[in-house]
Design brief:
Number of strands: 11
Order of helices and strands: HEHHHHEEEEEEEEHHHEE
Number of helices: 8
Strand order of the largest sheet: 1-2-3-5-6-8-9-11
Largest sheet: 8 strands, antiparallel, barrel
Strand content: 15-25%
Shape: globular
Distance between the termini: 66 Å
Length: 390
């Protein structure tokens, strides 16, 4: 290639790049007036701004286009665990032992002969056919004054917690169950792997859409809809998830998930009235399950590009237990010291909602999922029209 040819290609490339940049600039939203921000328009040959230059002003109050904005779930931070650095506040007695430790205690290496049926198969049966008989091992429940969640029943009882921002009557008995189980803390398998599952597996994709929004800061009346959606997350160059992607509503196989509730936004925080039921798909190891939040409520801190907070409700005990056992392989439970049989007994013991009409035993436990979401455009399927024959 001659020098003149290379120069011509370079010139064309620079012109093309400049055209693309100009087109991109036209697509970006204008946030504030340049003059109001104390800046002025500079010519092409002006000096570059100094690092100390003030950024453009961003309006404190903002309404999304057409009064609607969507957020897709990408991260389950925890099952409503409030963790302290030394764990002494919530787990003063330490952490629970796991299946390996329990097996060693129940069947010590004392020279006594035991059959497979009496040992491994017995333990396996206790996982898949659990009961509420007294636990053979100590089980440490999480304690303390504070927890993550919302007030689900409008009451304040001795079993309730307080939030860090001073809200009373926080219902989160699931925190008591898993708060001192290593697998559910940030050091455990859940903190390492669950985010990857939530983001990578299409079965797990769910999206909230807020409509009727006049302000993302304060709006007394909005509608929040929940959908299962179909698309992958929009990833950035470092593996982070970025706003601006799209999510198509699964109106066929995901119809059972669709539900709406009224809500309000106060000082940038969205709260909702109870949804009758929110179903959260959970696929970890290829055996899909559904976690069911009854009388579910959202509490989310909203930004134009993201949201974070909690999805709280009365969680169906049997469904949650099934999802736990199918999402985690045996080695995950062992590494994270999560004994399924002991956890089931605690779930049933601390369940505090939706009593069975025949037995009177509670079938759901109050809890919260600590979540992070990123903004996405929600695409609804067009209404199908049947052509009329003449």
């Amino acid at each position: 290639m001659t020098t003149s040819t290379r120069a011509a290609k370079a010139s064309f490339t620079l012109r093309s790049l400049g055209s693309h940049c100009a087109a991109l600039a036209l697509l970006l939203p204008v946030q504030g007036n340049a003059a109001e921000a104390g800046s002025s328009v500079k010519s092409e040959h002006s000096a570059l701004p100094t690092p100390k230059a003030a950024p453009p002003a961003v309006a404190k109050d903002w309404a999304p286009p057409d009064g609607k904005i969507g957020y897709v779930l990408w991260h389950e931070v925890s099952w409503g665990l409030r963790e302290t650095a030394d764990h002494k506040e919530e787990c003063p007695n330490g952490f629970n032992i796991g299946p390996r430790e329990q097996f060693a205690e129940e069947f010590p290496n004392d020279g006594k002969k035991r059959t497979l049926l009496e040992t491994q198969l017995k333990r396996e049966a206790e996982i898949w056919m659990p009961d509420t008989s007294p636990d053979k091992f100590p089980f440490y429940e999480a304690t303390g004054k504070y927890a993550i969640g919302v007030d689900l029943d409008g009451k304040t009882t001795p079993e309730d917690f307080e939030s860090d921002d001073g809200r009373k009557g926080i219902d989160n008995q699931l925190f008591r169950v898993v708060g001192c189980v290593r697998n559910y803390r940030q050091e455990g398998e859940l903190g390492i792997i669950t985010t990857k599952w939530r983001a990578q597996k299409a079965f797990n994709r769910v999206t909230f859409e807020i409509t009727g929004v006049d302000s993302l800061t304060n709006d007394p009346d909005v509608t929040v809809s929940y959908y299962r959606t179909l698309d992958t997350l929009l990833a950035g160059p470092t593996g982070n998830f970025v706003p601006g992607g799209s999510q198509r509503v699964d109106a066929r196989w995901g119809k059972r998930f669709i539900i709406s509730a009224k809500g309000k936004i106060v000082d940038g925080v969205l709260t909702t009235e109870p949804f009758k039921e929110v179903q959260v798909p959970e696929d970890g190891m290829g055996d899909p399950a559904i976690n069911i939040f009854k009388s579910a409520q959202l509490r989310l801190k909203l930004k134009p590009d993201s949201a974070e907070g909690v999805l709280a409700g009365y969680i169906d005990v049997e469904q949650w237990y099934y999802a736990m056992n199918t999402a985690w392989a045996t080695h995950h439970a062992a590494y994270g010291q999560a004994s399924a049989a002991s956890i089931y007994k605690a779930l049933r013991r601390l369940a505090d909602g939706y009593p069975d009409p025949k037995t009177g035993e509670n079938t759901a436990i109050s809890g919260a999922m600590d979540i992070k979401l990123v903004q996405a455009y929600v695409l609804h399927p067009e209404t199908e029209k049947v052509a009329k024959t003449p």
